[in-house]
Amino acid sequence: MSGGVPSGGGVVCVLGTRPEAIKLAPVVLALAARGVVVTLCSTGQQRDLTRATLDDFGLVPNIDLDLMQPDQSPQAFVATALPLLGQTIARLAPAMVIVQGDTATTLAGAMAAAYACVPVAHVEAGLRSGTAEPFPEDMHRRVIAQLATHHFAPTQIAQAALVREGIAWGAISVTGNPVIDALRLAEARLGADAALRAGVDQVLPPLREGRAMVLVTAHRRENHVHMASIAEAVAAIAEAHDVDIVVPLHPNPASGAVLRGRLEQVTNVALVQPLGYLAFVTLLRRARLVLTDSGGVQEEAPAFGCPVLVLRDSTERPEGIEAGAARLVGTDPATIVAAVAGLITDDAVHAAMTTAILPYGDGYAADRIAAIVAAEIVRR
Ligand code: UDP
Q1: Closest approach atom of ligand 1 to CA 179
Q2: Does ligand 1 come within 6 angstroms of the Cβ of 277?
Q3: Hey, what domains does the chain have and what are their CATH numbers?
């Protein structure tokens, strides 16, 4: 690394959205347990959700840039965030910057660190869908791979994708995905605290005794044009089966308006505001199946033996499909309705998608990442 390397020490974790908070929280806790000084810097891309999610892990951002503006494009966000993150990194002079995933915040954080000649660790490196979708996340991932110095790949498939793009073997560590560590932390908190469980139950929509529950989340940019089809499929499932359907809406209003318009009057569908992480985990544990286009939910549901129908035509998370825990069903209502019917009515079909394999990790990813980061910053 060349001349102008800052030398303040410690680590800056840059994050800005809910999934980044969920997946970086266990890493921050594991680093702190090893005595590493961590500065949590939030861009505020999803400000309130990020703060609420960090709070579920007992964390508070040390720096909150509060950058998001209504209807801001990813390019405008990156353009605003980049110089401010650059100033923050120059001031703190960390030994390493850690980013996670594929958002505009992740890209801006990695670029700001690279411009400052600070090593960049990328958590959840190497996810590739094989298409340009999801856009712009897939583009972000490829650029971040070129900027990062340490690539924490969740699986061997992700590792292989990085190697194919010319990333050196020695720079890649297969760690598992800390999303599973986050689930375990959430379960431990809920398991140990009856008052917390009771509080969580109060924010959940009422579920009828003895009825199966289907959980639905849909928000991806690529699906905004398909939201009416997804809403149609959910309405048809609600009519065909005596089930409770819960749809936590995404903070992005583009997806919520169509779902609300079609499903608000359907009696066995509960549309709810974005749930806190502990509440969402509680629902996921109870769900008979989940319909989703979310990346994190594809990773979490198999850990609960909950079948996943992916509302997309491709995924950068093929491990769940290979394990038999997930299926791509796209957004055509007839295809979705047919796939759901078997999972609701036929226990054998359901059992076939309930895998004991944990495709995304064993719950110790964060400690593996922290061990490597701690050793690396001491070495420098
Ligand atoms: N999640 C949550 N509340 C909700 C819906 C989802 O806490 O109402 C969590 C979920 O557990 C998962 C993450 O948010 O870990 C997924 O976030 P999102 O779907 O926004 O992003 P993606 O994973 O697609 O990047």
Answers
A1: 15
A2: yes
A3: 11-177+362-379 (3.40.50.2000), 208-352 (3.40.50.2000)
